[in-house]
Amino acid sequence: MSGDTLECMSLSTATLSDAPNPAATYVTIAAAAVRLSISTTALRARCRRYARREGKDVVARLGAGIVAYKLGASWRVRFPE
Fold it and tell me: What is the 3-state secondary structure (H, E, C) of 64-77?
């Protein structure tokens, strides 16, 4: 499913359109690598190096407020707003 389809699905209900979309704040490694102007391989390696366990979560604080979260076998990255 494309991102446009998911956005339309979340906006189909009035209560959902008023709530912030938490999925919109996290980007994939590929999208984060483009935004940071580095390769996906380098970003994954950096996430592995900085990975720390915080409770049940694996978190990599990459600096400048950028945080990566391990979700299963993949990483999601959050940029500061």
Answer: CCEEEEEECCEEEE
State the SS3 of 16-76.
HHHCCCHHHHEEEHHHHHHHHCCCHHHHHHHHHHHEEEECCEEEEEEECCEEEEEECCEEE
Alpha-carbon distance of 6 to 42, in angstroms, equals: 29
| Burial class (CB within 10 angstroms; exposed 0-12, middle 13-18, buried 19+) of 71 | exposed
And the tokens for 7? Answer: 């956005």
pLDDT tens string 22-37: 555 899 999 999 999 9
Query: Would you state the structure tokens that stand for residue 50, as one six-digit string?
Result: 């900085």
pTM of the model: 0.70
**Element holding 51 (H helix, E strand):** strand 51-54
